[in-house]
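Researcher: Please predict.
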Amino acid sequence: MNIKTAPDIKLFVLDTNVLMHDPAAIFRFQEHNLFIPMIVLEELDHGKKGISEVARNVRQVSRFLDELIQDATQQTINEGLPLSRIEMAPDTEIKFTGRLYFQTRQLSSLLPESMPGHLADNSILGIVLALTQQYPDTKVVLVSKDINMRIKAAALELCAEDYHNDQTLEDIDLLYSGASALEDDFWEVHGHKMESWQEHGRTFYKLQGPLVAEWYPNQYLYMENDSHFEAIVRSRNGNTAILELAKDFRVMHNNVWGVIAKNREQNFALNVLLDPNIDFVTLLGTAGTGKTLLALAAGINMTLEHKLYHEIIMTRETMPVGEDIGFLPGTEEEKMAPWMGALMDNLELLGSRAGHNDWQQGASNSLLMNRIKIRSLNFMRGRTFLNRFLIIDEAQNLTSKQMKTLITRAGPGTKIICTGNLSQIDTPYLTATTSGLTYIVDRFKNWPHAAHITLRQGERSRLADYASEIL
């Protein structure tokens, strides 16, 4: 094994979890060299069986490595395989010129005898330590999604980093919120060449100004003063934008299946949820902000009253908070029922608002359940949904690849709603900056048929609000 070194080229040692998380990780390091220990290949081999997302990722890694190693001799393997041998997707902008090295011989370096942990982690740490000593002029970096692995590396004075390529943002506070407050002098600056008109009972404004360039399609604009001005950016071209006054769903005569907006963000959420020209909506918010209730109320309204969709489909990632309760008998819907407590709670509320006595409420609940289908994410691949109102709940637990798989299921006439809370991620190796929900919020913010809003005010109860604030 002869690793080519240069002052500005690093040597990254990949942990197994990085490749399991992103199969294309070997192509994300540009001009730097990569090293894959033999124990990593062993762990990949153990994880290739099954139909889970991780197993599919492992099999894709194996295909990439097989393409790289085809027609390679022992000499070329020892000298490193050029990563540019594989043609990646057309949208891949990064030019990778580094080389991939496999462990072809025993690398030994003494680890502390009291080093805790299982054999695989310690074996990788020993290899990183050996490479650091063997190539003192090259910066050797361990890349791992495992926090404890990075802590152990730091304890051994080894350089270790998280895998950053899957991060949508460096700081979650930079995530697009979907709303923007206007300054008090907004009309003085932007109102000189303003045009206004009404169309189908809706009021529109066309204006110009310096703030326009910072807006996104379907962004929510409001003023903090008592003017009650709330508008939606319908289109933007350079420094010219067309705004539409938002409909007020905080009054009872505009209720949506008995639900009215309790605050500004909920009002905007109902505006975009009920807009048939918007195909994709993302709702972020902590517990009790009304994400699921608003999505269900809008879906029922557009399915039962306006007949725009055939049925409502609701799904979510089945990630337990505590211990797994084991095997669940029954059909697909019966297996999903324990995970759909939020759906049942909100349907009970919506059903109670549709009738004044037990008989009316029972009939309403039966009608709603006949138009709402519960589906598992495990059986989504390959499907196409036509004229459906699809709600993906707890979307913060999905990876960007899983989100792509789900969103591309949408056929003509289908609307997708993604709801989630980035402070409640239960999936291993996912964070707020790497969640698939963060990924799609950032990627869809420029599309004119998508909208996003972050719900900030809890409306569940004073107990829930206080708990969210102090706990």
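Model: The domain at 11-161 is CATH 3.40.50.1010 (Rossmann fold).
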